[in-house]
């Protein structure tokens, strides 16, 4: 599904990613962990095509399409979804309108018929119920005045509606209380299927109590220094990152 | 490799789709401004003596005035002797008696502008007065309105058919001495709309005037007068377009509104004059005076969507003379390319318990400069006057500017005046967020801007709100690279 080969990228002349190799198959959940400043969020940004990062080398293939040649909106339509660490407020733009526009852009790209307001509402309300979200969410402007937890839940709702092939969650767990964490995890688990994959970037092990990854990777100084199964996460929880960093050095 | 270069950096031309010229034979005065020109216009319109005198007094006054320098706009001095003050499509014989006799080329023009005048294609529920250069070419739904006692015609026609009404109200809200451009307008105004709503009448449909500048080197000086008798109600909308030309053209209009006791006037403007190009070549100078007076319990509401013109200079104002009267001003002003706008309002509280609301949304893109200028004045006797003002500015890119000049003068201690102002920038992060959900950068900008303007769109009549939204989208075309 996703094939990252020797990906090197940075901001201006400062290299951040120094050669990432990662294979993610359909149906898998990969967790990417690592200390602050290791390049986790940069990886998420580069995958989604955020402006300001220079890719100096490497390839990112999503089912054989090189994502790096596509504009952010084209990547989104190809099925790349980024759950933002800091979801952005868009004052005055109704959440339902925003989400329907997004859903229809992606449906158009897939050659599917656009959803009218009625069908969209029906679909979104079902998803909201599953995620335990109240309906007033839809009437409010996108993320505006939302609490931290509400913003993250809104990301998960969008993800559920857009049904991406590749979902990248950038520290979606940060700043969440335990109830919100459960909702986020539940959303991720519901999305999991044989045709899609998820990359969960997290600083803490605790999210992985709820989302069980097939693989755990440790990112340090722009490289993956260790990969393993879910037990690696427990080991990190217990021992921290230092032992790995020393091994790598 | 950078997959997507700077989203908000490049500003390219968008097409102004109303920039065509209608090839029609017209009768234009030689450029120049003097008594003979004023006499010519007045004679052309077969005006009574008092009106000619009034025009001549205005001209005399104008000759002593200097053009204002306080607006936050830059432009070379206008040579008033270099402008033609009258241009009208040539009439065959006595001129058209009804719309069926109007030159098909003119009807075609309005059709192209999306304002069909033909009976079969007319907008349902909207009566339109179409003004082409200096002349009104026809008014739709006249008979239906007449049944309700509503007068809706060109001001030239009103001078002929209802001189007593025109004489009673013309210049009472904006006197000929008011300001430089209003004075010029008083001397040379050619046409415009006249509306009269009788006592206790709710106007059965939206009234609308569509202004079109076609001829080159002419100024358009229209004058609109709306009188709402006691306990009447009217909603009026004006739209404006002009061809693309490299020269600047002057548009100096005056609008006067009179809302008598318990009356309500809602006046909406969608202004889309040709804005000129990126280098600031061409475009309309839109120097307009709009003012209304409210008697007891009356209400005047101005809503404007200003997307066109090279320079916009206008301050639709309300004089809250009667007790409990209400004034409102809702504005969206967008400047893209090299456009400049200095716009806002004046709310003059004279009566007791008068209330005013100001909501101004300024959007600057390209090299556009946008200023809000507003005055809230509370007189000595205006006990318990209340005002709420909100002025928000949105910047797109880093070559544009937004400025706010709020003035408050309160002479009554019981007045309550609130002012809120914000300036924000459409961030790369907002656009990226939308992109990441599959939306094109331009659609993202449009969505963000429309969200920003929501409170004002809400005030427009339904069918025009949609038009205005589309217009905003078109005006923003090319605002992201």
Termini separation of chain B: 17 Å
What's the quaternary structure here?
heterodimer
**What structural class results from the helix and strand content of chain B?**
alpha/beta
Question: Helicity level of chain B, as a percent range?
Answer: 10-25%
What does the main sheet of chain A amount to? 6 strands, mixed
The number of E-state strands of chain A comes to: 12
Q: What structural category do the secondary elements of chain A indicate?
A: alpha/beta
Identify the most extensive interface between protein chains.
A-B, 39 and 30 residues
Number of domains of chain A: 1
User: How far is the N terminus from the C terminus of chain A?
Assistant: 31 Å
Summarize model confidence as the mean pLDDT of chain B. Answer: 84
Compute the gyration radius of chain A: what is it? 18 Å
Q: How much helix is in the residues of chain A?
A: 25-40%
Strand content of chain A: 25-35%
Low-confidence stretches of chain B: 1-14
Query: Main β-sheet of chain B, in a few words?
Result: 11 strands, mixed
State mean pLDDT of chain A (0 to 100 scale).
Answer: 90
